[in-house]
Amino acid sequence: MRVQRNKRPARFDVTGDGKGLTGRSGTAAVRELADRIGLTSALSAAAKPSCRAGVVHDPGAVLRDLVVTLVDGGDDFSAIEVLRGQAGLLSGVASDSTAWRRVADLAGDELSIARLDAARRAARTAAWHAGAAPRAVVDPASGPLCVDLDATLVTSHSDKECTAGTYKGGYGFHPLMAYLDRGDGTGEGLAGLLRPGNAGANTASDHIDVFESALAQLLDLPDATRVVVRADSGGSAKDFLAYLREADVEFSVSVRLSDAIRTAIRTLHRHTSVWTSAVTQHGDIRDGAHVAEATGMIDLDGYPDGTRLLVRREPLHPGAQQTFDDLDGHRFTAFVTDQDDDDLAVLDTRHRAHARVEQRIRDAKDTGLANLPSADFAVNSIWLQLVLAAQDLFAFFAALALDGDLAVAAPKTVRYRLLHVAGRIVTSGRRPTLRIDREWPWRKELLRAFARIRALPLLA
What is the pLDDT of residues 292-343, one digit of tens each? Predict the structure, then answer.
């Protein structure tokens, strides 16, 4: 028997003398979008009061490039050097030390976060006017505009100001976040509050603070637009729900199964006629899952008037261990809401969509939140605002420049297919041209994104 030898892989030479090349063709489109929707100028207005006179780089441009760095996948100040290395494509990028100084300037100004909030709100308003408004804003009859609140743990591997032990036995921070659910699988970062790792999960005052900041991002909504705040049981504090009532905002919040709720569930479980079939997010019947109302079966004293209690049952997932609260192979959950919709399945589906906030938080950690870069708490608080701005920019890029699967893709996918694309920069008649490889599978999508962004009016 003769054995054929494997051929040696083709050899090629490697040199470091390339010219006119870039590995960030698509990232340039995101940077242009930041200028088009006025984010750069708004950040400049927010940062200038905190900066000393005579700085070389416009502080708004420095912050914009930090935000674009986070969109690009960077997770610390030094990552801005990747953009700085694309001088033929992205001119005027400041060094990492300059970026650090601008953020440190903001951290020393107690009003800076409020000004950054205003900058993000201005950019959001411009992007929505340009065509990125969620469906619930364009057509209030399509359903309410949902704002999701949730906390997450951010691990710290070194001592930083305000780090503390977490309830899961780790060490770090416990930020509370608020996201706008756009209804298409994507979301926008509305607000965030950086907190020590031992901060309470259901602290009403923190939820109120974050909600106020989130609501401030949603000014000038049409009168017919309903706003619903969704949260897990961490947002079930009665003081927080009472505050939402005063703000004329509806709520849909999970609650833990108390003894009274368990008793009600056992009673309901025996009566098949009270259960309504649950549906999926696409409106299809969900096999074995049902929802029922238990409002009149327990005492809801202390909750806002009109609060309703809904319970849901569904079969245990394959391999799931049955607990004391599970009955006949079913798992039960409960939530309270003050929405007056008659269709229990719709209320249940809308509430379960709160789970999408977990993807928003994963995206945040993939866009700079996983690594808070400073030992200083104030600097890290500014960094959190930049992460939110980066998530906004990602959402606007998807809404204004992309179609199909790419419009709802995770950041990792968009970076791989569109942002981190190689190109050659050639100049003819003093006009540079970015040439993208004709064999790149998503070449047409990237060219279309550039065209759509450049068709937007340039805001000063």
Answer: 999 989 999 999 999 999 999 887 665 556 665 656 557 889 999 999 999 9
Which among 411, 286, 410 has a CA at the least distance from the CA of 352? Answer: 286
Following DSSP, what letter does each residue of 421-460 receive, concatenated? --EEEEEETTEEEEEE-TT-TTHHHHHHHHHHHHTS----
- Averaged over 268-282, what is the pLDDT? 86
Find, among 361, 254, 354, 355, the residue nearest to 311 by Cα: 254
Helices and strands in the chain: count of H runs, count of E runs: 15, 15
Structure tokens at 425: 């920069």
Which residues have CB under 8 Å from 423's CB, separation 6+? 21, 22, 25, 89, 434, 435, 436, 437
User: If 0-12 CB within 10 Å is exposed, 13-18 middle and 19+ buried, where does residue 26 land?
Assistant: buried
Closest CA to 407 of 132, 179, 122: 132
Q: How far is 215 from 191, CA to CA, in rounded Å?
A: 9
In order, the DSSP letters of 288-306 are: EEEEEE-GGGS--TTSPTT
Per-residue model confidence as pLDDT tens digits over 252-271: 999 999 999 989 988 988 88
pTM: 0.93
In the chain, the domains with their CATH numbers are 21-111+373-454 (no CATH), 143-364 (3.90.350.10)
The pLDDT > 70 percentage for the chain reads 95
Rounded Cα distance, 419 and 88, in Å: 16
Using pLDDT thresholds of 50, 70 and 90, give the confidence band for residue 52.
Answer: confident
Provide the residue type at 357 as one letter.
V
Strand runs labelled E in 152-209: 154-155, 164-165, 171-173, 176-181, 187-193
The span from the CA of 170 to the CA of 315, in Å, is 33
Mean of the per-residue pLDDT values of the chain: 92
**What integer pLDDT is reported at residue 280 of this predicted model?**
84
Short-list 289, 271, 274, 286, CA closest to 331: 289
